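Support request from a user on the community tier.

User writes: "When I paste my structure tokens into the form, the page sometimes reloads and wipes my input. The last time it worked, I copied everything first. Here is what I submitted, just in case something in the input itself triggers the reload:"
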């Protein structure tokens, strides 16, 4: 096993879990523990396997309970939202996206792409009660969409939302 492989597993057998927690317990400081657990949760969630996504959520819950480091919180909540969205829990995902955005506003915290994913989810899922919130967020953060894919998704999200709200002229632009 490579030096960094212990916190980048894409399997989560009982042996994997025990080995990970044994190594994690030797890590120094809550910030390091939170970061290693978050990276491991990300690797598990990226498999797309529902059981592993639930295991990722367990790790994220552990971070929130044991090592709620301000720098990590925006990313933890963002990942949590993505996991819930993968499992079909749109309501829970909305809550976690909002928590991520709130945590980003705290001093010393990281910035994430949670705002883009939130806007995209609202548009794709047709969450009419969140259209105004998503449009306001897209407008406020538009300058943060640095990559062509990000800009495309924000414009596509706006078009979908405007299409849902019977504003075809705005959707077309």
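"...and here is what came back when it finally went through:"
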């Amino acid at each position: 096993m490579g030096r960094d492989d212990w916190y980048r597993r894409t399997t989560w057998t009982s042996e994997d879990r025990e080995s990970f927690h044994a190594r994690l317990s030797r890590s120094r400081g809550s910030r390091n523990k939170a970061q290693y657990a978050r990276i491991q949760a990300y690797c598990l969630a990226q498999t797309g396997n529902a059981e592993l996504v639930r295991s990722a959520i367990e790790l994220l819950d552990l971070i929130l309970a044991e090592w709620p480091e301000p720098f990590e919180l925006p990313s933890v909540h963002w990942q949590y939202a993505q996991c819930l969205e993968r499992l079909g829990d749109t309501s829970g995902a909305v809550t976690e996206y909002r928590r991520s955005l709130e945590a980003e506003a705290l001093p010393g915290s990281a910035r994430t792409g949670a705002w883009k994913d939130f806007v995209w989810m609202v548009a794709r899922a047709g969450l009419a009660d969140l259209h105004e919130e998503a449009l306001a967020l897209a407008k406020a953060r538009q300058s943060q969409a640095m990559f062509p894919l990000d800009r495309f998704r924000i414009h596509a999200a706006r078009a979908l939302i405007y299409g849902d709200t019977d504003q075809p002229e705005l959707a077309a632009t």
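Agent notes: The reload is a front-end session timeout and is unrelated to the input. The chain has a mean pLDDT of 95. The radius of gyration is 18 Å. Escalated to web team.
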